[in-house]
Amino acid sequence: MRVVCQQPNYFPWLGYFEQVARADSFVYLDNVQWIRQGRQHRTRVPNFPQSVAEKNWLTVPVHGHGHRARPFREIEIDREQNWIKQHAETIRALYGRAPFFRSQLEPLLAPFWEKAAQHRFLIDLCEASVALFWKPLALTATVWHSSDLEVTGQKTARLVNLCQALEATEYYSALGASRYLEPAAFRAANVNLRWQHFRASPGADPRRPCDYSVLDWVALHEWGEIRARLGKTRGTVLQNILSERAVDGIVTEVSGTVH
After folding, report:
1. pLDDT value of position 4
2. pLDDT for the residue 248
3. Residue 48 to residue 67: CA distance in whole angstroms
4. Alpha-carbon distance 18 to 137, whole Å?
5. pLDDT in the model for residue 205
6. 21 in any annotated domain
7. Which of 69, 130, 149, 247 yields a CA-CA distance of 20 to 30 A from 48?
8. What range defines the domain where residue 136 resides?
9. DSSP string, 67-121
10. What is the pTM of this model?
11. What is the DSSP string of 158-190?
12. Does some domain include residue 258?
């Protein structure tokens, strides 16, 4: 049983979906603190006119005052700002001539924009932006919310307790969490800690940043190719390209590194 825990993100990068694709259970961390400089309320896309290396943020305006005293699920969207129109127009300007904009991205986003204004809370909007890709990417993980699992603890302790609540044998973590996770706590709970090493640059230019929004991928690549990058269609072949090694009790997993 492999578990992944993440805060909901707004149109996250492809690596976010790679974690979901490899999970048996995916936990939305809805009762943790919102990160003002994080990606929960924003996503990266190229600048317009397009420049391969330059990045631009599409940001959802929120009422962030006092956010340190409120859990993520209580952060509200500032619905007085006309951000929906601006985001939709920016995406059309960036990708309107992309090979799969009209066949894949546009029909996927049209109903999303129509309903976006109905969301009061940021978490609902973020989850809706992720859910758009669930079926096209053939994702099968069971979805949970940390608030429903009624676990306690901070940082590592919270994650270990979530793993135990779900009877997990593995926790698949984003590499950025290595700054604060305590491997010994997972080892003591008999949970293998695995690190994500995923890079995939959309487009032919290897200089194109790999952390652009999933929107970039869907505009430029056919669904089947994207699913293959996530490892969903590689089956036993995927097992042959994994490199695992124990380092002080940590299992490091290299998952189909692609440039």
Report:
1. 97
2. 37
3. 32
4. 10
5. 64
6. yes
7. 130
8. 2-253
9. GGGSBGGGPEE-TTS-HHHHHHHHHHHHHTTSTTIIIIIHHHHHHHHHHHTT--B
10. 0.85
11. HHHHHHHHTT-SEEEE-GGGGGT--HHHHHHTT
12. no
Contacts of 199 (CB under 8 A, 6+ apart): 15, 210, 257, 258, 259
Q: For residues 78 and 117, is the Cβ–Cβ distance under 8 A? A: no
Token pair of 110 as six digits:
């049209």
**d(C-alpha 22, C-alpha 25), whole Å:** 9
SS3 124: helix
259 in a structural domain: no
| Token pair recorded at residue 180 | 């604060």
Residues of the chain short of pLDDT 70, as ranges, are: 48-55, 66-68, 200-207, 232-259
DSSP state, residue 141:
P
| Domain count of the fold of the chain | 1
How many Å apart are CA 259 and CA 241, to the nearest integer?
15
Give 130-160 pLDDT, tens digit per residue.
Answer: 999 999 999 999 999 999 998 988 889 999 9
Distance between CA atoms of residues 126 and 9, nearest Å: 5
